[in-house]
Specification:
Layout lengths: L2 H11 L3 E10 L5 E9 L5 E8 L13 H20 L11 E6 L3 E7 L15 H17 L21 H5 L4 H15 L5 E3 L8 E3 L5 E3 L6 E3 L2 H11 L2 H6 L1 H16 L4 H25 L8 H13 L1
Antiparallel strand pairs: 1-2, 2-3, 3-5, 4-5, 6-9, 7-8
Helix pairs in contact: 3-8, 5-9, 5-10, 6-9, 9-10
Length: about 325
């Protein structure tokens, strides 16, 4: 651990010393790492620090190395640090408490509560319905928290796959019908009347669980404005099979809006009507990105193809 990072941790936890470090994971494309750090004589026995290295020498695992990609990543980390400093405390959904953010010429450091010691030590690779439902509750409460909030300092349009930031993937997309419809799909989503802040990367890997199945969310690099259905469709696709996505579609939406209306305090029928109609549009939007980014990806299936075709025909 470099002395700059160590001093940052000690200063902001008032700990006497760092006792241990553990690499949780490397950041995508080599932009740094997440560390769990043990400390002495502080309120916390351990903290998590996101050490973001602002280097141009990065290596995308799928070969998508470009200035566009690099700038998107740099912006994403600036967004995440701004999110933690200015928005995180407003979230009704459980997220790690932000202890400090610091910028240097070559790093961004984000110091966070350790969710493992806060009661969320479990990571899941598959979910039962109760666990899946709890994630929908997390998303609904998150969206309620930021309904109508302008994404100042964040992505104007949330999600890592939205069209404006993915010109290369669109250029190589071989599905010409979908390529032609991409802008109309994007416009339909962005022109919705009811907007919130979306998480933007609400996959299963970004949720931490308690032993009882309660949920906390992490990773806010792509938080920004938009329709909440972007998160719901993307989350479902991240952890359900093709058959489950189709069979459970109505149940997923019913459950999400039950939680949303409960968090909102009353039935928001106009929003629910609009967002329900955009669920498949959001699905088609991610499908557009995926077919350009990784045409052989396991998430590309007949359900996605079919509902995308239906969305295109309806536009």
């Amino acid at each position: 651990m470099n002395i700059e990072l160590q001093n940052f941790i000690l200063k902001n936890t008032r700990a006497s010393e760092v006792t241990s470090t553990e690499t949780i994971q490397s950041l995508w494309s080599g932009y740094g790492e997440m560390l769990r750090v043990g400390i002495n004589d502080a309120e916390e026995e351990s903290v998590v620090v996101k050490d973001i290295q602002l280097s141009t020498k990065n290596n995308h695992p799928r070969g998508w190395n470009s200035d566009i990609g690099h700038q998107r990543k740099l912006i994403s980390y600036q967004v995440e640090s701004y999110w933690y400093k200015n928005y995180a405390s407003q979230s009704k959904s459980r997220i790690p408490k932000c202890l400090a953010v610091e910028y240097s010429t070559s790093h961004i450091y984000i110091l966070l509560e350790d969710l493992n010691t806060a009661g969320f030590p479990v990571r899941k690779h598959s979910l039962n319905w109760n666990e899946f439902s709890n994630c929908l509750k997390w998303l609904a409460e998150f969206h309620v928290s930021f309904l109508g909030v302008e994404p100042e300092g964040l992505w104007n349009t949330g999600t890592y796959w939205h069209l404006d930031t993915r010109p290369q993937e669109l250029e190589v997309l071989e599905d010409l019908e979908l390529k032609k419809a991409a802008e109309a799909i994007d416009t339909t989503l962005n022109n919705c009347e009811y907007k919130t802040l979306v998480h933007g990367d609400a996959k299963l890997a970004n949720f931490c669980f308690s032993e009882l199945g309660e949920v906390a969310g992490v990773d806010f690099q792509y938080v920004g404005g938009g329709c909440g259905m972007k998160d719901v469709a993307y989350f479902a696709g991240s952890c359900l099979s093709e058959n489950e996505c189709e069979r459970l579609e109505e149940k997923i939406l019913d459950t999400y809006f039950q939680y949303f209306n409960s968090g909102f305090g009353e039935v928001h029928s106009e929003l629910e009507q609009e967002w329900r109609s955009l669920y498949r549009v959001a699905w088609a939007d991610f499908h557009r990105f995926l077919k350009g980014w990784s045409p052989g990806h396991w998430k590309i299936n007949s359900y996605s193809e079919r509902i995308t075709k239906e969305v295109i025909e309806s536009l």
